[in-house]
Design goal:
single chain, mainly alpha, 10 helices, 72% helix
């Protein structure tokens, strides 16, 4: 049921992006869709009310912040993200149909990534176990870290004198993609919180799926290619001294 709802939503967003010529709306739709599904799960499930409210709040805060950030920084009054622009060029005459397929993959992704929340919501255990509180602490650290990384990058880009330069201050001094790292870390929170829940194995969809996407598919590979094309040697120097994913102290480029 969740998947079919998202199919309809993504069809509508595909039509909208045809008018806007900005496929970044798919990323906003991903966030809104995740919130909608989790709220629906929370109203339909038979789990503990306190836990359902907590999980719904976590989904709302995580996806709401991310969706709002994407809307402001990549959609409203913005040109299309370089990833999507390049895809349109690569797809050529078949772009319309392939972009439709991409949006439908997003529908499938929303349904899949909503499953960790469903597992937590359906947990019949009364009260909160210590392991759930540990997971909550990880969630707070991860979502706060991602928000901080996004804010630092947005602030850097807002300064005209930084145009064409590499952001390597704040969290970006320790990782070339701190926002991706904290996004991935955030999904581990649900794995930990759901240890005692039936269907716990489904919570692994989050960190495994997101890790694969960020490290191998649409995350770091696309971003690094674009950065090298636009920032050249400065970004290569940044690569030599800074970890791609896991935060660590900068290396001596020598």
């Amino acid at each position: 049921m969740a998947y079919f709802v998202m199919v309809v939503v993504m069809v509508g967003l595909w039509v909208l992006q045809r008018r806007m010529r900005n496929a970044s709306i798919a990323d906003v739709g991903w966030c809104v869709g995740l919130i909608a599904l989790v709220l629906w799960y929370a109203t339909q499930a038979t789990g503990e009310p306190e836990r359902k409210m907590l999980v719904a709040a976590l989904a709302l805060l995580y996806a709401g912040r991310l969706g709002f950030y994407i809307l402001l920084n990549r959609v409203i009054g913005r040109t299309e993200d370089a990833r999507y622009h390049r895809l349109r060029q690569q797809w050529g005459a078949s772009e319309r149909f392939k972009m439709f397929g991409y949006f439908q993959l997003q529908a499938l992704a929303v349904a899949a990534f909503s499953l960790p929340f469903l597992v937590l919501i359906h947990n019949p255990r009364s009260g909160f176990a210590l392991i759930e509180l540990v997971g909550l602490v990880i969630w707070i650290v991860a979502v706060s870290g991602e928000a901080m990384a996004d804010w630092q990058l947005a602030q850097f880009r807002s300064k005209s004198w930084n145009r064409g330069k590499v952001c390597c201050t704040g969290l970006w001094r320790y990782s070339r993609h701190p926002n991706y790292f904290f996004e991935w870390l955030h999904w581990w929170a649900y794995v930990i919180m759901g240890v005692n829940a039936p269907g716990w194995i489904l919570t692994w969809i989050g960190p495994m799926g997101m890790g694969w996407a960020l490290l191998k598919v649409t995350g770091i590979p696309w971003t690094e290619r674009q950065a090298l094309a636009s920032r050249g040697e400065e970004y290569r120097a940044y690569q030599r001294r800074t970890n791609a994913f896991f935060p660590w102290f900068p290396r001596d480029p020598q």
